[in-house]
From TrEMBL, chains A, B:
This is FAD-dependent oxidoreductase. Residues 511-572 form the Rhodanese domain. It comes from the Bacteria. The keyword Oxidoreductase applies. It holds the Pfam family Pyr_redox_dim. Belongs to the class-III pyridine nucleotide-disulfide oxidoreductase family. Keywords: FAD, Flavoprotein, Oxidoreductase, Redox-active center. InterPro entries: FAD-bd_OxRdtase (IPR050260), FAD/NAD-bd_sf (IPR036188), FAD/NAD-binding_dom (IPR023753), FAD/NAD-linked_Rdtase_dimer_sf (IPR016156), Pyr_nucl-diS_OxRdtase_dimer (IPR004099), Rhodanese-like_dom (IPR001763), Rhodanese-like_dom_sf (IPR036873). PANTHER family: NAD(P)H SULFUR OXIDOREDUCTASE (COA-DEPENDENT), PYRIDINE NUCLEOTIDE-DISULFIDE OXIDOREDUCTASE DOMAIN-CONTAINING. Signal peptide: none annotated. Its cofactor is FAD.
Length: 574, 574
């Protein structure tokens, strides 16, 4: 018999590494220790199981060729032993053994290893508030809980759901409750935006509006103070502002690395509690590897370690761990934090750094926005999409891209291309000439990713001067905040006139784009002209022209009305 | 008045450069000389206009905000003068003038320039066969021809259409004829495959099958010998094998650079007739720039110049020319040959080099194939997609990627990410860990692009031994060609049994994947086992296992039955 390889954890990274190492080293004795009886599942599919898109939980545990990945499957097809229902209690690094306990019987034994891998994943963070132990409070941390949630809904026990936390999992669960089951659903988020730390505020605002348009209540800046119960069961969630009725409360307040066994074994641990590994997924003990949601990884933009608990990374890390345990020195260099999410009819994606994150990291960061057609504007299926590009003014490097548009793979295409390019250090100039495959049903001759790079380049070179969407919105709330501003709306008159009528010509002027060259002398020279169009593109052209005729006091609203109205402003007309 | 900038050509690169340079240098006097009266249009949209997806040709000449880009638009909105209906006859580089002629009146004049740009585009290649001047023979070279074609169809004058040439434009036109108008349509291609030089044979075969499934006749290896006419009108197309009835014949046999004016002016020209430019789009005369379909560009994989007449590149090159004419030293480093096409319900895409091209270039090239789910296999909208990755065994660099799958943006997403990564020199190992944005509605935890990289890596490292789809198909035609081969079908018995029944157990054995470890001793040791599954993934696992138990004579069918049956083999069952 060959090397004894023991892997603690059987959800994603663990099984991936086990199968890979066995394939490379058929004489190895590979054992997975898993405390649960349900394992090797697609945890990211849980919201779709609850929503009913996936009808049976066994589908989440099946291969693409429809075999359930149970103990027999691993033994017969993969040659990998699974000790399920078995908890790993402690690692003895000197003796090279793992003490395990059968969860049902309490029986303990020692499992010897030559090489060990820790793939213990993450655990949900539970808010320290009263009521979290009430019946009806759930986390989305394993399949049993998902089955129980779906069962309660299907039995008609859930009329009101509250999701605590507006991260990706929380929002996906909210959609699941509302979309299939018609449950009255509320999302409560402590931060001033949903998807905090993932997208910037304008993108979060567009998604919030879409959630609300689909009758999901979203309360921002509201912390959950207490889960209210009656007779041991949840009846509501109390915040500082209100109490919301609830038969079910989903705690979707993030996850933390599950690293206790590594801590106890004296392995090196990061300040936030993740296991420290090198590029070969090796911990501070060369005989022990780790991968998945329990480790920290290198951020390919910042060059700093960060915590990225994602199923897609867990699988890649697991494969690299498997390689190395078999003696193939492959490496996992890091991650860039790519993100994509469906919400009802839209999708939102991001890669790299947000503007907030880039500024916090100390970059000389700025952001370009645009909202063009996602494919040839004459092609019938075209739609407006919104993109931003965060870049560093000093190095011209692109730091991050975010996108928002109709559901489909169009946003993915740009986010994925951007992720590949950014991870290789691409600049805004590289993005300007990036060759996106072109035909009218798929893209525009100047793809959105090129278009946003052009905006970034014009900004970086000082040719484009803009105001942010936030500043513009603040001014719309209080015109006196910028007393010299006046909008110059260059859209068609039929689009612009209602705004002139509503706000008055001293706040909102309309001169169509194609008439500016002839009529610019009508414009006030003692005001700051806030140039407005659909996406910001025409506005930049007009700014360039006005500069040349001594009207230098102009600012472009980057992203334009296409973005503003998707953010849900109440003053938008038409 | 500022610099005089004259641009010859008003379709794509010309207008883009004109608008850009004017924006950067508002005092410049920018003039476009265009022989046609219809200009600044999306030529790639012509098939969709003929198909009816685009109802009016003016949409192809409009901006995304619905203004027609005519002479007035350019003058008023862009500050650019268009001399339309005016042909550029000759360039006098010493005097810095262009001799032009009004097409209608024949009147000539000299237009002086400080900086000149040539954006004369391409001209269709016309086969030197009898009958090309008959009424009813068309190229897809300008809007007038497109209008005339659509008019004839709409008036019921077209029952039978023949497209000569199975390149992208020819196939898009064939779909247009068939899909909306129900015209009996035939594609005749001289080469042994459609999309020659763009995709490799297996991908061409899958598309050919789909075209035929949609009732477009496709004849390969058939040159057009003569266009047959009666009373001056087309009635058919004759090949060596047959005469096909036709009321209309579309010559879609490729394009050549339109560079006569540059040749006559003594500018440097490539062997195939394209204008030679540097990265700043400057010709051998520093006062003359060129961009678009009349130039050659650097191939970012081979490092050699090539001809890439694409609207998307023309726009990018035009912008770079505009920058440089305005004194901004931006560069266009080259292209990678990205390609995407819709055909009925599928799409096909490619970037970088095909296997044929890579071998012709002298790379130590090999190709990996796979056919997995395009998103989480448990998500309801998942579909099988087919991908290949061409790589260099010596440097491990990825040279090209091709994809085939259902219509949508999913193939684009992978092709675009691959284009970005390849253009930065990414290796198969980089592709293995490329972070594609993951959620079940968009991708699998191990994205197809990662999956195909894994296959490439296993191949490159000698762990995976395969046979090609072509070799396998040849054996299926003639079992004696490889007398020692026997298929080992490891799919579910319900899938495999009909094949065993049809071909006999001496040609087609079935042992399910999950039973091989227990039953491998049943397998013949004196044969070469051709391991078969859906995509090739399970086959590789089984090959690895069989190697370890002294069954080394195995080959995997890379791409598996998912690809084989999409190629339209007649022996496929179920």
């Amino acid at each position: 018999m060959g090397k004894k390889i023991v892997i603690i954890g059987g959800v994603a990274a663990g099984p991936k590494a086990a199968c890979r190492v066995k394939r490379l080293m058929q004489d190895a004795e590979v054992t997975i220790i898993e405390q649960d009886t349900l394992f090797s599942y697609g945890g990211c599919g849980i919201p779709y199981y609850v929503a009913g898109d996936v009808s049976d939980e066994a589908e989440l545990r099946s291969t693409s060729f429809h075999m359930v990945r149970n103990e027999d499957f691993f033994e017969n097809a993969k040659g990998v032993m699974i000790m399920s229902g078995t908890r790993a209690m402690a690692i003895d690094r000197k003796k090279k053994t793992v003490k395990v306990q059968n969860v049902a019987s309490g029986e303990e034994q020692e499992v010897p290893y030559d090489t060990l891998m820790i793939a213990t994943g993450s655990k949900p963070f539970i808010l320290p508030i009263p009521g979290v132990d009430l019946d009806g409070v759930f986390t989305i941390s394993d399949l049993h809980k998902a089955i129980e949630i779906k069962d309660r809904i299907a039995r008609g026990k859930v009329d009101n759901a509250v999701v605590v936390g507006g991260g990706a999992t929380g929002l996906e669960m909210a959609e699941a409750f509302k979309d299939l089951w018609g449950v009255k659903t509320t999302v409560v988020e402590f931060m001033p935006q949903i998807l905090p730390g993932i997208v910037d505020k304008p993108f979060a605002a567009m998604l919030t509006k879409h959630m609300r348009d689909n009758e999901v209540d979203v309360f921002l800046n509201e912390g959950a103070a207490e889960i209210v119960g009656e007779a041991g069961k949840v009846v509501g969630l109390r915040t500082a502002n209100r109490t919301i009725a609830a038969d079910i409360v989903i705690m979707a307040t993030g996850v933390r690395p599950r690293s206790e066994i590594a801590v106890d074994a004296g392995l090196q641990i990061s300040p936030m509690g993740a296991i420290v590994v090198n590029e070969r997924m090796q911990t501070s003990d060369p005989s022990i590897y780790a991968a998945g949601d329990c480790i920290e990884v290198m951020h390919l933009v910042t060059g700093k370690k960060f915590y990225a608990p994602l199923g897609s990374l867990a699988n890649k890390e697991g494969r690299v761990a498997g390689d190395n345990m078999a003696g193939i020195p492959s490496t996992f260099k890091g991650a860039i934090g790519s993100f994509i999410m469906k919400a009802f009819d839209v999708c939102i994606g991001a890669t790299g750094l947000s503007l907030d994150a880039a500024l916090a990291e100390g970059y000389d960061a700025d952001v370009a926005l645009t909202a063009p057609s996602d494919r040839a504007h004459f092609f019938p299926t075209e739609s407006i999409v919104c993109f931003q590009m965060v870049f560093d003014r000093r190095t011209r490097k692109v730091l991050g891209v975010q996108g928002f548009g109709p559901m489909g793979d169009g946003i993915s295409a740009r986010i994925d291309a951007a992720a590949a390019y950014i991870s290789m250090g691409a600049s805004i100039d590289d993005f300007g000439t990036l060759e996106m495959a072109y035909a009218p049903p798929f893209s525009a001759a100047i793809d959105t990713i090129n278009a946003i790079a052009y905006v970034a380049e014009n900004l970086c070179d000082g040719r484009l001067r803009k105001t942010s969407l936030e500043s513009f919105l603040a001014w719309m709330e209080d015109f006196e905040s910028e007393s010299e501003w006046v909008v110059l709306d260059i859209r068609h008159l039929i689009e612009a006139s209602p705004f002139v009528e509503k706000f008055g010509a001293e706040k909102w002027l309309a001169v169509p784009y194609s008439e500016i060259r002839a009529r610019y002398k009508e414009l006030p020279q003692d005001k700051i002209l806030i140039i407005m169009c659909g996406s910001g593109t025409r506005s930049f052209e007009i700014q360039s022209f006005l500069d040349s005729v001594d009207y230098p006091n102009t600012l472009v609203v980057s992203g334009g009305l296409n973005m503003l109205r998707r953010m849900g402003v109440d003053w938008y007309l038409g």
